[in-house]
Amino acid sequence: MSFKAEGRSDAFTNARHGLGLCFGANGLGAYFHFEILEKPASLKVYRFTMSSPFKLLVFSFLATAVFAEDAKPMAPDADSMKRGQAVYNRTCIACHQPTGMGIPPVFPPLAGSEWVSKDASIAVRNIVNGMMGPITVKGMTYNSMMPPVAGVTDKEIADVVNFVNHSWGNTGPTVTEDEVKAIKKKYADRKTMWTAAEYEKEAKEAPAKK
Asked: Less Cβ around it within 10 Å: N or C end of the chain?
């Protein structure tokens, strides 16, 4: 019995984008359909459909099960995490602490921060240009300054962002060295520190740009 795939070409590559896969049994003229649909509020919907095209016999079955399970982004490899921890210990630990909890009310936490799950370019831009002004993290407003981090390579930036985004229970995006290079190139003309207000404005304007 032969089977063929009829789903999306990126099936099973990234759960955040949804999955789809179909198998067909050519000899019987029947097929089995399987897809995973990601829903808002961190819900996944698994849909199974089985049917037969026989003229005199039509049988179909549809079952939908909803699981309250977070769709976690793909985690970086262990080597990247290890390198990232070394960079963190060298450049970030004094302000954000070994636990990632920061030093309230001066330095905000990274552990459990809602900013970790936002656009990965934010962390990269903060490292390259720094950040200043008020920012609200986990309900508390901080108003201090993060200077640019000097002496780090593009690979080290990617590694430390990955370490922060996947430590202390965080589930932020994974970043590659090439993505860091692209982000730096995009904002190469930037000479001043970033602000939370700018990031929030970008997020509001993003849908209109699509």
From this structure: C
In eight-state DSSP terms, residue 114 is: G
pLDDT digits (tens, 9 = 90+) for 15-31: 333 333 434 444 444 44
Q: H-helix or E-strand containing 120?
A: helix 120-129
| Strand positions, DSSP E, 11-155 | 19-25, 30-39, 43-51, 60-67, 131-137, 140-146
Residue 23 CA to residue 33 CA, distance in Å, equals: 6
DSSP letter assigned to residue 32: E
Other CB atoms within 10 Å distance of the CB of residue 116 = 25
| Contact between 22 and 34 (Cβ < 8 Å) | yes
For the full predicted model, state whether its pTM sits above 0.90.
Answer: no
- Dump pLDDT digits (tens) for 52-77: 454 334 334 333 333 334 445 578 88
Closest CA relative to residue 80, chosen from 193, 161, 144: 161
Tell me what pLDDT residue 45 has: 42
Greatest Cα pair distance, the chain, in angstroms, is 74
Question: Phi and psi of 179, rounded to 5°?
Answer: -65, -40
User: Could you tell me which of 181, 139, 118 has the C-alpha nearest to residue 131?
Assistant: 118
Coil, helix or strand at residue 169:
coil
